[in-house]
Amino acid sequence: xxxxxxxxxxxxxxxxxxxxxxxxxxxxxxxxxxxxxxxDAAAVTSGGVPExxxxxxxxxxxxxxxxxxxxxLMIESxxxxxxDRFSPLQQQLLLDTLLRPWEPTLFLSGSMNxxxxxxxxxxVASSSLTHRYIAQFAQNFATGTGVTVTAAMNRSSDxxxxxTFNPSYGGQLTYRVTQNLLRDYGRDINLRxxxxxxxxxxxxxxxxxxxxxxxxxxxxxxYWDLVASREDIKxxxxxxxxxEKTLSDNKRQVExxxxxxxxxxxxxxxxxxxxxxxxxxxxxxDQLQDRxxxxxxxxxxxxxxxxxxxxxxxxxxxxxxxxxxxxxAIRYALENRPEMRQMALALQSxxxxxxxxxxxxxxxxxxxxxxxxxxxGGNQIDRLTHTVTSTGxxxxxxxxxxxxxxxxxxxxxxxxxxxxxxxxxxEYSRVVAQKQSNEARRTALAQAIALDVRNAYSTxxxxxxxxxxxxxxxxxxxxxxxxxxxxFQLGSGQIRFVLQEQQNLTAAQTSEIQSLVNYTKALVDxxxxxxxxxxxxxxxxxxxxxxTLANPAAGTTAAAxxx
Length: 563
Hints:
By secondary structure, the chain is an alpha+beta fold. The chain is about 60% helix and about 20% strand.
């Protein structure tokens, strides 16, 4: 009894699994003919830092952030990065559509024809009924080969008294192969469009990489501009405090009669000027913060993030290892700039087109072969004995096909020779000219990249020298202010000279800060010029536009906390 139950359970499980497998197969098969419900979301979206999580990183109204955090948050949430992902995705979908000529096809057709007409002879039927059904499988291959297998069935009945079979069933199975031998022969030729489109897809991937480099460079430059603005505000606040102290001291001297009242007016004007400068610098800093918030968030209005960005990273001080020799930098740039890789792909596509157009110069020659198997069934009529013998119906007709009693074959070729061929020669020449043009563009691009690297190199060196000059200028401005203050305290100087030196010191301090920031930004531009931006920031982009940050810096920054 237990054995019977086990057998019954096993049989039930087998039939259930078989039914489920068949159902899954049918579902998957039918899904081929339905619109896709979604596209690859991973290709057009990034992880994204939820805005509520970003809000949790805010401490007492400030968001501590480093330049690495800005880059990381931009990659995770920036809308431009998300939009730029669509172009490579569209190229991939376009690439998939080019596979259509090589997809197998099943063709089914059926028809019924009923006809009745006056007969002019006993040999011609006046009434007939015909059914015709065809099933055909067709497949083209990239080698220039075409294969078709056609199964056809005819059922025919009429009132012709001289028919041997009535009704009759005729079955036929035909195998046909065609092969191109000159024009359109070979995988490289027939897959030309697909190969070029693959290069276009890779070029689109590289364009996404170039757009990402632009955004990373923009994010870094905005960060250092924010650092400069905050330091500039600090300098102007110190300058205001110094001006207010000078005003307070001058008022006391006016009260005791050692200073003329007009000198207090000059000092008050100086304080007002300092206050105006702080207002302008604060406004510029707020606008800069909004631009950075736009880079690192996906909210509709970045200004709704009510937190002040607090840069925690200092500007880069000059170091002997900041730059490689300019010759090495140019060589590195020519090997790593995305534009050079794009141009190499364009030349590769030119070679593919050239190979194809050269093949199209040839005559068109194809050979074909076919093999046919036939069978017949129905009611066979013996006109001598007036007896009817049934030889079966449709099944017997197809059974006879595989008995190979009635077979046939055919062989043939088709040759087409263009007598002029000028248009195809012109097309070939056009592709040659296009390749030569792209080769010239590659040379011009290499020249432009070399010049770009040299300019970026020179800019770094110039800003290195400016830092030294700005530091010395600030030191001299401090000494000059100190001297004027002593002269004024001893009664041999004038307040307007003291105020002027205060302004000079503020300008020198601002210039020193800006020179440091400019040097750091020049290094950012140097990395861009040699094609090292993504590597410098540990950013990797794969063929599916998935961005990963290798070896992320640890710490308590916003990005590290998010991870």
